[in-house]
Amino acid sequence: MTLEPHRTDTEDQHPSARPILVLYAHPSPDRSEVNRHLAEAATSIPGVNLVDLYGEYPDYGIDVDREQARLLAHEVIVFLHPLYWYSTPAILKEWQDLVLEHGFAYGTEGTALHGKVFFSALTAGGPELAYRAEGFHHFSIRELLNPLEQSAHLCGMVYLPPFALFSARTAVEEGRLDAHILEWVDLLKALRDDRLDISRAQQLPKLNGELSALIRQE
Amino acid sequence: MDGMLFRLFVYLCAAVIAVPIAKRLGLGSVLGYLIAGIVIGPLLGLVGSETSEIQHFAELGVVMMLFLIGLELDPSTLWAMRTRLLGMGGLQVALSAALIALAALALGTDWRLALAVGLIFSLSSTAIVMQTLTEKGLSGTQGGRSSFSVLLFQDIALVPLLALLPLLASPELLLIDADALVHAPQAAGSETLAHAAEMSLVAGLPGWAHGLVVLGAIASVLLGGHFLSRPLLRFVAESRLREIFTAAVLLLVVAIALLMTLVDLSPALGTFIAGVILANSEFRHELESDIEPFKGLLLGLFFITVGAGIDFEILFGDFATVLGLTIGVILLKGCVLFGLARLFRLKTMDRWLFTLGLAQAGEFGFVLLNFSMSNSVIAMEDAKLLSLVVALSMLLTPALFVIYDRLILPHKSRAEPADADEIDEQGPVIIAGIGRFGQIVNRLLIASGIRTVVLDHEASQIETQHRFGIKSFFGDATRPDLLRAAGIEEAQLLIVAIDDRDRAVQLVEYVKRRYPSVKVLARAFDVNHLYLLRKAGADVALREVFDASLRLSAEALKQLGMHAFKVEKMARAFRRHDEAGLDQLYELWDEHPDVAKNRALLARAREHRETLAVLMETDRLQLHDRTERGWTPPPKGAQASSK
Ligand SMILES: Cc1cc2nc3c(=O)[nH]c(=O)nc-3n(C[C@H](O)[C@H](O)[C@H](O)COP(=O)(O)O)c2cc1C
């Protein structure tokens, strides 16, 4: 039994229009070159709460009640992760299997997530050009994430295309990291303040690229 | 007896009054002791001629200090500082000696005497400087370390100096002394000589034999320190008598000092070598904390005697000369030091610390002046005068440190970047108790590249650990001084795994009170102990058998044919359920930690016992409820509509 002060589940209660929950999953964060920095950047934004899933549940023993309470308290749910085998790292799958319960997330009574915005912020090792029908990976990134998209629909959520960084293994060397982090922060702030053009965003293959055109400036 | 008690009373009284006042005024303890000495000696005349004898005894403090310094430096660290040691130290001694000798020549001194004086005054005061640096927390800085290297070199240089000085004997003095010896064998100078001869193994030996004896003595310190001291200390430690262990440590130091004196070597050097050799031993921290108080007191006594020994008659009779010489020496040495600091690229702050800190003459100056006098190098009046110069320069040192504190430090530029290699390595994790529990903790930490300091009061445990190449130290971890020696002040974590439940609680309580920033993780024997540790402030406390029991019961379920992942879920749910119960009960317990008087807790416990069966049943229900929670498919028939 540990005697650490118990984690509060209330977390940061920023009076923002849409509080954001980032579920961060990286099994070896100390070797991460991209995701770690995205996670760090997210923690410093008011109104954004980040949960390090591997940090909190090192044995995959996900606390369903706690996770459901978190979902209820936020309006935007983001998966932040590297692309592993065209999908999420294992703990995010475990999280879905446990937390998205019948009667909570889906089913006639399961309306807890209705209307909440969902998307995945991911990094892929492969280059963007390879993610298309003629390319090495044969499918676009949005197509590969179909299971997530359909799960979101089943839960009545508003699905946005992924915020994706390609060729992630060389992003640092090629100096692409900083710009990506800036975009990531802009995106989160726009979502939080309800300044993102949701219906336009839904049509895109990915969120980044033309991001500034989607954001209304105040 | 009365006389001794009275003197003891006077010394202690002076120290107890003067030192705290001096510290309060920001002058440092050394100046406090010196002033105390001046007050009881020359000013009030409460102590008199016996001071020089006491000073001789108090030099043991210096010897012990070098022993402690040695303990901090294992051979590899010493090797790593060889450039600074030889380069800086060697140049400092050579250049200072040359400059001072030249100045003396310019004042019309015979070249022999000039050279002798130069050599004598090239030395600085290890006692004052090291004491002050530690007190001000400056010993780890670049300037502090450089100062230490130079001081160490000087201590080593003492050996050849003692051999060299007699060669500089002045022919005239030799004649006079020889005369005096014939006519009055009790002449002051030769008395010490005779005294020395009586207690020497090397007096009167031819050069080659002298060399052999000296080498033999050093070899015996090296070999004895390496092979004999540890079994001896282990043997004594087994007796579990604290004071006998302390006595053994003192014996070690005194024996080495005696041996060194017998062969005309510096006792400080001998104990320094012994310290270095023992730096890697399991007794290091215990030795440190045992010697530390003796060193402190004796060193204080030493400073008092320096103050008390100042001859005001000569001082005021020839005030201008003494003051002029003192300032001259400090200036010359300061110039050499400043130049060296530039040469070795010390940063501004460190350069000034180094320059101001080492500019005085040292306590070995007294020794060497006495020695020179008895070897007809210097006349008695001159020796007395120069002794005053030594004393006055030492007296001025704390003032120089005050200059550093008040005038130099405030100018420290914020821009000066910290040296990468000076950022001290991360504090260690201290593990108290290396029994079956502590061993496992230590293994995982070390495997993860964490530096640990292991303490145990069972010499045999330590021995076992050594056999497996694990470094651990002998000593009772519940002793504050030992904890400090082990580095609790910089430690990140303390892990309490000692086998005495009450002392474990005391240890947690003490460390959390004194060093709130240190995280404390403790092993608990049972629930009550866990609560006590929690109340004492432990950041983490774990029941020692809980995890193993849980794992064994999980294995049992698997043996019974339950699916391994089902078992895993059951065990996880059980753990959560149990911990929640533990938290609830703690709240009741915390109101009245005295279990016997805690009605509510007793009632709860009785209830627990009486309805154990019922409880087990709810355990079962709740666990099933929890484990069935996850991976639940949608209800049958609902599929069509939603999934
Ligand atoms: C187990 C594993 C599976 C991976 N699968 C893919 C993949 O299917 N497609 C791809 O483009 N990159 C794949 N990668 C590369 C990772 O996406 C890439 O290393 C990661 O995005 C780099 O981000 P990081 O520096 O934050 O870890 C995989 C990497 C690992 C370790």
Automatic annotation (TrEMBL), chain A:
All copies of domain Flavodoxin-like fold, residue ranges: 20-186
Any one Pfam family match given in the protein's UniProt record, by short name: Flavodoxin_2
An example Gene Ontology molecular-function term: FMN binding
UniProt xrefs under InterPro entries: Flavodoxin_fold, Flavoprotein-like_sf, KefG/KefF
Oxidoreductase listed as a keyword: yes
Keywords: Oxidoreductase
First and last residue of the signal peptide: none
Protein name, UniProt field: Flavodoxin family protein
Organism field: Thiorhodococcus mannitoliphagus
From TrEMBL, chain B:
UniProt GO MF annotations: antiporter activity; monoatomic cation transmembrane transporter activity
Protein family membership: Belongs to the monovalent cation:proton antiporter 2 (CPA2) transporter (TC 2.A.37) family.
Lineage per the UniProt record: Bacteria, Pseudomonadati, Pseudomonadota, Gammaproteobacteria, Chromatiales
Bilayer-crossing regions: 6-23, 30-48, 54-73, 85-107, 113-134, 146-169, 208-229, 241-262, 297-316, 322-340, 352-373, 385-404
PANTHER family reported for this sequence: K(+) EFFLUX ANTIPORTER 3, CHLOROPLASTIC (PTHR46157:SF4)
Compartments, as annotated in UniProt: Endomembrane system
Gene Ontology CC: one annotated term: plasma membrane
A GO biological process held by the record: potassium ion transport
Protein name: Potassium transporter
Keyword Nucleotide-binding recorded: no
Keywords from the UniProt entry: Antiport, Ion transport, Membrane, Potassium, Potassium transport, Transmembrane, Transmembrane helix, Transport
Protease listed as a keyword: no
Membrane-topology descriptor: Multi-pass membrane protein
Stretches assigned to the RCK N-terminal domain: 426-542
One Pfam family cited in the UniProt record for this chain: TrkA_N
Superkingdom as given in the UniProt entry: Bacteria
